[in-house]
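RETRY 2/3 - previous attempt timed out on the joint model. Re-submitting the same 716-residue input unchanged.
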Amino acid sequence: MNTFKEENSRRVFIKTSALATGAMFAPMSMNAMVHGFGEKKLKLALVGCGGRGSGAAVQALTADPNVELVAMADAFADRLESSLKAIQEHFEGEKTIKVKEKNRFVGFDAYKKAIDKADVVILTTPPGFRPYHFEYAIAQDKHVFMEKPVATDPAGIRKVLETAQAAKAKKLNVVVGLQRHYQQKYISLLEHVRGGAIGKIRSGQVYWNDAGVWVRKREAGQSELEYQMRNWYYFNWLCGDHILEQHIHNIDIANWFIGDYPIEAQGMGGRQVRNGIDHGEIFDHHFVEFTYASGAVVSSQCRHQPGTMSRVDEVFQGTKGSVTLGKGVIEDLEGNSLFEYPRKWGEDPNPYQVEHDRLFASIRSGGVLEDAENAAKSTLTAIMGRMATYSGKKITWEQALNADLQLMPKAVTWDTTPPTLPNAEGYYPIPQPGKTQF
Amino acid sequence: MGSSKSSPNHFADEAPQHEVAIAPFWMAEFEITWDLYTLFMERSVDSFQKQGVAGTEVLLDVDAVSGATTPYVDMSFGMGTDGYPAIGMTQLAAVKFCEWLSAMTGNFYRLPTEAEWEYACRAGTTTAYSFGDDPTQLDDYAWFEANANAAYHPVGEKKPNPWGLYDMHGNVAEWTLDAYAISTYQARKGKTTDNPFEVPTQTYPRIVRGGSWMDAPRHLRSAARRASNKKWKQRDPQIPKSLWWHTDAPFVGFRVVRPATSPSPDAQKRFWNYNTQK
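RETRY 2/3 succeeded.
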């Protein structure tokens, strides 16, 4: 529980650098000769060709001049081709992006073939698949960028935690798209908090409240599996519910700022507005209380309801003051401003780009970035929250971590029956607090 | 239109100063607020169109109007929604709002041309601002860098211009229909141009007017022009980037106009489709 990593804190980074005298540098450069890639061309594979995956590929291709996209994989050929076209259009007039037709792999086993061709892989399929793709990538000694969340169930989390250890042992770089860790405002405010600006954190509120996301309606001729894959946001084995898929960003900030993971969660949730035939099985709101070993309590709220108040933010109260991450403001207990992060719209580096810049720089220099363990634990925090809202019961960290809960089928082919199926009217079973186990 | 080289705080792209003739139109008193824009985003009142519309200028099924996607981030960035100006929409989105509003009301709405915008902003004045030349009075009329406290404000809190239009200077910069081109003003030198409109053929750059809560007084002048830029989508993590949202333009909004004489259905369509957005 106290294995919290601080590698992204600039404070820690500076301290480490200051300690790294000449004596430290010699072995590091030897290390680079063994594990680093120097100036060699880095081959990139994209696994999961949605909008975010295509965006990540563009950022990887921008981060380093000598990266080549050599392979792509997706369950669907149309998604793969439109992704390639969008990446090509992005670089129009700058550089030519070519992926040989024989290296465009389609289907549920496509990821293996694409990963095999690469040095660095981008894993951006729906999150249910992530543990299996990550496991394979590390087994094949690949460096990884993967999107959050990193699993949808505790079984997946356990696999990611094991794989994270393997990656560490192999000195492979793993960056996860919790991009606030690479955002100057967050890093700067964390430095102030770690420096004692607000004292010890006692409470917090984290929010992802907005109107919701896209819906893809069922189309004639689709199998049940294809429909669920296309409309994946609304199915838990693929998505994990929005408390994971989006709100993990804010929950992860609570863990990062408090420097620990919660010991238990309890909460409530349901689906009151977004409950149509296209909305699968997920809730449209969750409200969870996370309690930490220090006694700190964080209220987490996420809502996907059009017409309601939007807020995506994190706020923490300490023994000496408070920090509001959205506004970038630290105040004392009387509300006097102690520090304001300068509002520099568009001037700070884009964190989505920085995470790739750091990844490729680290690969080149033989460094090791280890985001996977924290990403797995923050994903588990969100899963623990979901287990609490689905069951209406208190869920401890140990219960969540060890739960016999696997939403994801052990293997998925086009013959697989999805783990949830609609009734005769087309509606899916919805979790019932007080009845659902978790 | 424009400003002469000798006028204080002049920018080169405001010259040569030239005459334009503008056909009559109405302009919205206020910048479009989140209250209104959300109705378009969420399309939650479309069914009312079936009960009949008040106007007779537009015959358009509202279902045929394409809709903005839901953004992945809170596009108000915590600055407020109810009564506050909507921001961060692309020009395409602003244009489609106009098409939607037209379908819903039966009256023809569109974005102003750049010339219409400046004509309305000046409201008969020839000074740097519609209240004169003195930027120290700006605090009475506009939200800008020095008084905005790093955020936009509810529409209509400051004094209006002589024609009763609020926030033409500052608060949020406003989309117009025109492309931004270096040659535009040069071609109108020494003559009167009727209803000028630099028809866009590319997504960028297009004209934004009025300056915003982020800008210095100089950029709020009636003649000041700003060009849109693809960097306004820099932080959009998806590829292709959203057609509907500028993640890095929390300073841009819009207001609508209604020409006194509505154009033909074909011409209406052209006004709603000057977009070659990628």
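Residues 40 and 97 of chain B are 6 Å apart (CA to CA). Closing ticket.
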